[in-house]
Amino acid sequence: MVKQRADYISGESEYSREKSNPYEMADYLIDQKINYRGYGPIGFQMNDDILLNQVTEVLLRNPHVDASEININVNGGIVFLTGHVDSRKTKKLAEVSIQGIPGVKDVMNFLTFLPSP
After folding, report:
1. Comparing C-alpha atoms, which of 4, 109, 8 is closest to residue 55?
2. Which of 40, 48, 101, 111 has the fewest CB atoms within 10 Å around its CB?
């Protein structure tokens, strides 16, 4: 009992390096549905130019968003969308499609929509 408590306090788990192989640890993480996508090392901040390229690529690849009238600016990981789209649904879809990009802290969606005549 004392050893288990000491292991717990020191950060050891049932899957410590001495007790298992990396494949068992990967299986454990998958089974637990643990997802660390988007979590970088302490102090890491994605470069705004890289984020701008990634946001642009996501919008280019989205078959439901016409990005031809969208302006994108990134400042400190915050994405600013301005310009025009064809509907309220497209406005929301543009925002939602880029929220999951690692490094994006927030999306400020200032898009306006002009309904077709």
Report:
1. 109
2. 40
Return d(Cα 101, Cα 39) in angstroms, integer.
Answer: 11
pLDDT in tens, 40-73: 788 777 899 999 999 999 999 999 999 999 999 9
Provide the b/e sequence for 9-46 (b: ≥16 CB within 10 Å): eeeeeeeeeeeeeeeeeeeeeeeeeeeeeeeeeeeeeb
Contact at 8 Å (CB) between 82 and 71? yes
What pTM did the predictor assign?
0.66
For the domain made up of 48-113, give the CATH fold.
Answer: Histidine-containing Protein; Chain: A; (3.30.1340)
CB contact burial 103-115 (16+ within 10 A = b; e otherwise):
bbeebebebeeee
Question: Tokens 């927030």 identify what position?
Answer: 106
HSE-up (13 A, CA, CB side) for residue 107: 22
Among residues 93, 98, 90, which one has the least CA distance to residue 72?
Answer: 98
